[in-house]
Design goal:
Structural class: mainly alpha
Helix content: 55-70%
Strand content: under 5%
Radius of gyration: 20 Å
Largest sheet: none
Shape: elongated
Number of helices: 5
Order of helices and strands: HHHHH
Length: about 160
């Protein structure tokens, strides 16, 4: 899963003087961020499609409702994940890494070092990859492979 993130909690020099309760809390927050990231990219879109498919049989209404509601729900959920990350940073007494320069400014900055990745960034990256793989598996193995423009019947 997020081996780097979990090992960071357990072995980082600044964390060695932490009490067991702070380490357990930090680990729990990492797990919340990991599960929350998966919910963001897989659970919320699937929930919107399922919910509206139960409320109406008109597939265009399902897609329209999901197209409007899904990004709003995802934005609210992402804000919640940001708050969890802030709590994690506060407990671990880590500082939030500064925003990196854009690629075209990076060569001008004179800094050849890369900033370490944060736990939330690792969780989000892994969850996006898993979401894309999940979508590809669903699309190619559980649908008609895109040959239909609309589902024949909404039976989840």
């Amino acid at each position: 899963m997020h081996a780097h993130a979990l090992s960071h909690v357990a072995t980082h020099p600044e964390h060695r003087d932490r009490g067991p309760s702070e380490r357990v809390t930090a680990l729990a927050l990492v797990l919340v961020m990991a599960v929350g990231s998966l919910v963001l990219w897989i659970g919320i879109p699937a929930a919107w499609l399922w919910l509206w498919s139960q409320l109406t049989t008109h597939y265009l209404s399902v897609y329209a409702a999901a197209l409007i509601g899904c990004p709003l729900t995802m934005a609210a959920w992402a804000w919640g994940l940001h708050r969890v990350n802030c709590a994690y940073l506060r407990i671990t007494r880590a500082t939030e890494s500064p925003r990196p320069h854009t690629a075209w400014l990076r060569s001008m900055s004179g800094s050849g070092r890369r900033q370490p990745r944060g736990v939330l960034e690792i969780c989000m990256t892994v969850s996006v990859v898993l979401a894309l793989v999940t979508f590809a598996v669903w699309f190619f193995f559980f649908t008609a492979g895109g040959s239909q423009t609309a589902p024949v019947q909404w039976n989840p």
